[in-house]
Amino acid sequence: MLPNKKALDLIKIYMEKDFTSKNLKELTKKLIELDLLVKTEDNTFTVRSDDPEELMHSRVGALKEGIEKFAVPSNVTEIKNPKILDLCSGMGYNAVSALHYNINSEIDMVEYSKEMLFLSLALDIPMNEHLIIKNAIFEFFKGNGNQKIRIFNEDARFTLLRKDLKKYDCVFHDAFSPLNDPVLYTVEFLKLIYENMADSGVLISYSSSIPFRSALVECGFIISEGPSVGRKRGATLAYKNPNELQKKEIKRIPESDERLIALSGVGIPFYDKNLNLNSSEIIKNREVDRENLKNLLGDKYYSTTKIKSGKIDEKLLNIQKENLNSSEIIKKMKKIYLQN
Ligand SMILES: C[S@@+](CC[C@H](N)C(=O)[O-])C[C@H]1O[C@@H](n2cnc3c(N)ncnc32)[C@H](O)[C@@H]1O
User: Fold this and answer.
1) Which residue's CA lies nearest to atom 10 of ligand 1?
2) Ligand 1 atom closest to Cα of residue 184
3) pLDDT tens for residues 87-128?
4) How far apart are CA 319 and CA 323, in angstroms?
5) In this structure, which residue's CA is closest to atom 4 in ligand 1?
6) How much distance in Å is there from the Cα of 226 to the middle of ligand 1?
7) MnmC-like methyltransferase domain spans which residues (predicted)?
8) Which of 8, 75, 189, 318 has the fewest CB atoms lying closer than 10 Å?
9) CA nearest 110: which of 71, 157, 75?
10) Domain limits at 291?
């Protein structure tokens, strides 16, 4: 899925003009007048997406999200020269926030839409570090590279297959919601992220979706409930091989979610074997997988309502009382459920 088409078309017109502050100001003015650029509660701006219901950020604040959902939980301040993969970098709020908390961050920004990168030049994100990002974007448009802030203007599925990637300490995963656009939430894509992370690396996403968390567990991540900013549900943190400090920070996800991931059709993840399917193909394939699971389990198949309310075999429920993290519980429950 992409940002709103009308917004992209208008930005394209300005990309052809000189990059003067007069033109950039005129662009933001027009986007605001057309209600395509929307002010959030912290006075920073976000863009409408192709789905009229979905903005690129939540209403509580585009910059607030960058800080509270990504930079702070990633613990970037504590990492020496952190290497960050900023997936779906958009206007760069998450990258600006990371630099604010650690000026030595090396960031690889991955964004499909050239227009969103350009729009960053027209915005005034109220942190000095925005100038560093603006400068990298400006150089990108001039055709120059930047060692510290690299910009990959392409589909993230292609980027993850590159040979020149780093071993990332933090991965910011900020795609549109998985039920609208599952392309970057598939097992195969998340596996590539896993392979490109440092041992103590952490992936962060605002999404708490069941199939997404299920895919993370399948890839080998240790999942943890993250902070909730502007939503009821918490964000997701996923560790590759948590160190002692990280182990202490791991929080179980809600128990009913553990059960849904382990036992229900809702817990079936998205797949994209050759990393080339579109959203509707991925969604359709998952429907088939859900139907197959139902047929395979026959009488043993629990309804979602039963699973949510915990009206299931005591043996499975007892696993949730063990001193394990959510990923371990989910794997154990699933194994026993499918064995019986
Ligand atoms: C929710 S917004 C992210 C906002 C962004 N982090 C920011 O700070 O402005 C999602 C972004 O993902 C981009 N996107 C969508 N699909 C993509 C893909 N397959 N690869 C790379 N970027 C993608 C969209 O163009 C959009 O800018």
Assistant:
1) 175
2) 19
3) 999 999 999 999 999 999 999 999 999 999 999 999 999 999
4) 9
5) 90
6) 21
7) 144-241
8) 318
9) 157
10) 256-339
